[in-house]
Each structure stands twice: as structure tokens, then as C-alpha cells.
Amino acid sequence: MKTKTNFKTILSLVAVIAIGMFTLTSCSKDDDNNDNNLDNTSKSISATASSDPQFSILVQALTKADLATTLNNSGTFTVFAPTNDAFKALFTKLGVTGIDQLSADALRPILLYHVLGSKAVSSGLTSGYVSTLSPAVGGRFVSLKVDVMNGVKLNSSAMVSKADIMATNGVIHVIDQVLLPPTVADLAVANSNFTTLVSALSGAGLVPALSNPAGTFTVFAPTNDAFASVASFPQDLKPILLYHVLGSTVYSDAVKTGYAKTLSEYMTHPMDMYINTASGVKINNSASVVLADVVGTNGVIHVIDKVLLPPTVVGIAVNNSAFSTLVSAVVKAGLAETLSGNGPYTVFAPTNDAFSALFTALGVSGIDALTAEQLTPILLYHVVAGNNVSSGLVNGNVPTLQGSTISVNVGKGVMLNGNTNVIVADVQGSNGVVHAIDKVLIPAGK
């Protein structure tokens, strides 16, 4: 069940984010204050760089990548311009002697990562993320992190050594390092709000995987505060960390309410998270997305305020309000602890509408009108031993934990007892799988 979402309200959350990550803005007032500087120059960004010997390697790189003309034309740009010394340090890091050993295709995304599509003077910069012109998955652009706490620092490494060199088509800020477009792993490393996450990823050996340039990831990234709020973790964090990662890149405008398959597995099957967009963006009825669309070269990060723990079959029901009646019944019958055990279990889970239809047929008002003794055999009749995903179901009778069998018929879909349909299949948990059904199953004689 592929999840594509529509985070219609996510931008409203950015304004209230409490983790020190804010939007990079370019204030019109600040631009007005610098109009005199702009009027006093007659050179474009490209011409300004060409006339300054400290940018000779940058100019060579722009020319080779066929970008010099772009920065010489009309438009409005901000260029974070690395000096010759910055490029020489990069060459040493890469084990090359100079620009001649780098192709135009290799240079272009690096150079575009130093360029914004609007003018941002230094007095208009605030700590946070901004989109560069370096391309990313799905037509998006790679994010750059700006920190203005002590000077201006980019991605926690490059410093602005001289700001606000005005040109006819924008502004240049001189920097002391060449910026390389970051992967989702690099984005996490470059943000001090993710130090616990980075440490956990490193300890679990997952940094190389999330650094794969061919990857297409979505990372729901818990902050340091989110990790600190959890009393204890199991020794093996890998399943928990992978539960925060989807194997495709899903931006905030491409997600809707429903289930999404994560990279964390139970019995070789990917476990599901439940995303609800009814009011903001909430995952598993607990974690909220507080900042969306921090874009890397191999995917996107959405920042969340709680750590996600892979749910049991009971947790799956708890996380989705469509199963609230089922949860009440399981709790009243005293089965929550049992079904949260090792398993594996297969649960055919009736929705609230299914229970409402049963209450009408019985002439009762709800769960309160039924005793635990009445509920227990009915609920156990919905549980089968094993992790039985839909692709493994076959026609026949399947024994339940209640003792009697359910008739399974597999065709275009899955039908139980000749009249009950599986309407959502294969919601995988940490101790079994849940299939949502549209009627409550009643064992014979009950």
C-alpha cells in the first residue's frame, strides 16, 4: 500500500517549530537598504567574480560547467562564492589536482548548490534552511542550512568571510569552503538538533546506506528532544531507526492519510506506519511533523517531535481511530497484553462501522452493553496464529484462537465466511499482521 500524501497544512507547522530551525528569508526592507550599493555597480555576478583574482578557480569551474553565462544574465541570484584556497582544499579531499580532472556534469550540481534563486543580503539571513538551485529527486532542489548565531555558517562547516558584494543581478558572499550537495545522512550530520539521531544511525551501521547517492529515501527524523523523552530503548536500535525511513522520496505535497511501508521488517515483511493529515500531519497517532521538505540529493527529511516505535497488532489498532471500538473491546476483554506478546498473530480487524452494524443487529448501544465474557470469544475468533499476509492466503478453513475456523475465499479480493470483505490488507506490525474487515465475525453458537 503505497502512501502518497497531501500535507495541505504542513506549512502552518513551520511557524511554530520549537527546535531552532527557521526559514531563510530575504527581507524586502533589507534589499531596499542596499539599493544604493546595487546602483553603484555595473557588473553582473559573473563579471564581478571574473574581476577578482581570489575567484579564478570558481570562474574556471563556472565556465566549464556552462554556468558563467547564466550568472551574467538578467535574473536575481545569491552566490556563496568559494575562494581559490577553498577549491584547493576540495581538490586535496577528492584526490585530484584541479578543475581539469572534474567533469562538467560533476561540477554543475556542486556549483548550483552555491546559488539561490533570489537576492539574500546578510542582514536578511536567519538560521534555517533555504532551497538552492542544485537539482534533487522529483524536480526539487537541495536544501542548504544557514546558521547566523556566530557569523554566518553554512551546513555547520563553511563560514562567510565577506558578505554583500553587490552585483547588478544579485549578491555575492565569500565562503571559505566548497559546499558539496548533501545526502539525507549529511543533512542530519550538519544539524545539531539531530546529534542523537546521527549517533544512533552510526551505531547501527546505517549511515552508509542513507549516504547512498542512488537512494530515494524519506526520513522522518526525530529531534534530540524527541529521543530524550523516551525512557529506554532496546539494545538493537536498527529496527526502530529503519521504521523512520521509507524507501521512496515522498515530499509534503505527495502524501495522504493512510499506511506507508517502512524499511523496518518483521518476518521479511516491511512494517507500516499510519499517517493522518486530518489536522496537521501526525504519524501513528503520536508524532507530529514539525518541519517538512528538507531536501537532500537522495531523498527528503521531515522533522518529527517523537520517536516512532514499531507497533504490535494492538498498536496498529490504537494508532488508527477507525479501530477505536475494536480497541475498547480488546481492552474490556483483557486481551491487549496477550495480543501485544511475541506472536506472530494475524488479526482480521473490524472497523468502527462494522461494530456499529453489529450493535444495531443486536439491539444494543455499544461495547458497554456487552460483557468481557461475551466479547472474548468473538474477538479471539478474529485472530489466527502466524503472520499470514494476503499473498499467502488460500481457499479453505483457517483455525482461530477461539477454537473454530474461518472460511477464507481468495479471488479478486479476500472474503471471510462468505460475506465479510478484507478492505485493507497487510498492515504489518512487530508481532503480526492486521487485515481490516467490513463486518464483525461471529463464531457459530454465539
Overview of this protein structure:
With 446 residues, the chain is an alpha+beta fold. It has 3 domains: 22-181, FAS1 domain; 191-304, FAS1 domain; 321-437, FAS1 domain. Helix content is 27%, strand content 28%. It is built from 17 helices and 22 strands. It has helices spanning 10-14, 28-33, 35-39, 45-50, 56-64, 84-94, 104-112, 184-189, 195-203, 207-210, 224-228, 238-242, 313-319, 324-332, 336-339, 352-362, 372-380, and strands at residues 22-23, 77-82, 115-116, 128-135, 141-147, 153-154, 158-167, 170-175, 217-222, 245-246, 258-266, 269-276, 282-283, 287-296, 299-304, 345-350, 383-385, 396-399, 405-410, 414-416, 420-428, 432-437. The strands form 3 sheets. The protein has an 8-stranded mixed beta sheet with strand order 1-4-5-6-7-8-2-3. A 7-stranded mixed beta sheet has the order 10-9-15-14-13-12-11. Strands 17-16-22-21-20-19-18 form a 7-stranded mixed beta sheet. A hairpin with a 3-residue loop joins strand 13 and strand 14 (287-296). The radius of gyration is 28 Å and the shape is elongated. The two termini are 35 Å apart.
The CATH topology assignment of the largest domain is FAS1 domain
Number-wise, the strands total: 22
Q: Spans with pLDDT under 50 lasting ≥5 residues?
A: 1-40
What form results from the Cα inertia axes? elongated
CATH architectural arrangement of the largest domain: Roll
Strand order, largest beta sheet: 1-4-5-6-7-8-2-3
Measured between the Cα atoms of the first and last residue, the distance is 35 Å
Give the total of domains: 3
Q: Structural class, judged by helices and strands?
A: alpha+beta
